[in-house]
TrEMBL record:
The keyword Transferase does not apply. One of its GO terms (molecular function) is ATP binding. Gene3D superfamilies: P-loop containing nucleotide triphosphate hydrolases (3.40.50.300). InterPro entries: AAA+_ATPase (IPR003593), ABC_AA/LPS_Transport (IPR051120), ABC_transporter-like_ATP-bd (IPR003439), BCA_ABC_TP_C (IPR032823), P-loop_NTPase (IPR027417). This is ABC transporter ATP-binding protein. Residues 8-259 form the ABC transporter domain. It comes from the Bacteria. Keywords: ATP-binding, Nucleotide-binding, Transport.
């Protein structure tokens, strides 16, 4: 792998909570345009890695370079501005707000929030709003043309599959270089999960340079959408390779799949 292909490079990333080592000396690389599957049993440190990388938790040790920049000491806002966006395991939406408003929450780095602009430059504000609206709508259309016609409806009226789509759009609207998806299938049926994964593959077709790390327990999803996978157990990386490599690895079968 040439250095310029590497978007994210983590070395020895460690996170301790008191005596518990939730993430233990993790080395990981993600190439530009790659989809990395992040696997491991419950409590193995996957979400902790997302929280450390996105500045929610401090690094206890180690470092991460993203697009050539050391982001180990960045705040959550600085990580977002550098180009990493994420979704959360539990759906986090403002249910009474419209689909469009929920997506715009994710776009504040591109919005002009100046009081003078918003109060006195009404024409420029209206043009800006129109442009943002169309941009959000185009993005939603990649997921579902039907949803793109319902931009002003309150999110509380949408089923879980659509809420997950909207959450991913909220992350994508900031045009990140790296998207972190934390168990996007949580709370969905098998069929809905497969539809959502089809959507993620469409996103990839539209933005081939986007890299994705996805945490997911549904193995068929990992098989379908990932370029390679890394497996954690008790905070340590125990295996890395293609989906086939990791599912055939004896350590992974024992730790994750419960097969000896
Ligand atoms: N804020 C915290 N304070 C203390 N311990 C924590 C904290 N966050 C996570 N942990 C612990 O760190 C370990 C790793 O948790 P984490 O949520 O990262 O696992 P996970 O692999 O994402 O699990 P799951 O698949 O269930 O979401 C667990 O033992 C968890 O209890």
């Amino acid at each position: 792998m040439s250095t310029s292909d590497v978007l994210l490079s983590c070395e020895g990333v460690t996170r301790r909570f008191g005596g518990l080592v939730a993430l233990d000396q993790l080395d990981l690389e993600v190439k530009r345009g790659d989809i990395l599957g992040f696997l491991g049993p419950n409590g193995s440190g996957k979400t902790t890695f997302f929280n450390v990388l996105t500045g929610i938790y401090d690094f206890s040790d180690g470092q991460a370079h993203f697009a050539g920049e050391n982001i180990s000491k960045h705040s959550a806002q600085a990580v977002y501005r550098a180009g990493i966006a994420r979704t959360f395991q539990r759906s986090r939406m403002c249910l009474s707000l419209s689909l469009f408003d929920n997506i715009m929450v994710g776009n504040h780095k591109h919005l002009n929030l100046g009081l003078g602009f918003n109060l006195f430059r009404r024409g420029a504000f209206a043009r800006d709003y129109e442009q943002r609206y169309e941009q959000a709508r185009e993005l939603v259309r990649v997921f579902s043309p039907n949803l793109a016609d319902r931009m002003s409806e309150a999110v509380g009226g949408f089923p879980m599959l659509d809420r997950r789509r909207i959450e991913i759009c909220r992350a994508l609207i900031s045009q990140p270089k790296l998207l972190l998806l934390d168990e996007p299938s949580a709370g969905m049926t098998h069929e809905e999960t497969h539809q959502l994964m089809g959507d993620i593959l469409s996103v990839r077709e539209h933005t081939p340079e986007l890299s994705i790390i996805i945490i997911e327990h549904e193995m068929s999803v990992m098989e379908r959408i990932t370029d390679h996978c890394a497996v954690l157990n008790f905070g340590k990386k125990i295996c890395e390779g293609t989906y086939q490599d990791v599912v055939n690895n004896p350590q992974v079968r024992e730790a994750y799949l419960g097969i000896e």
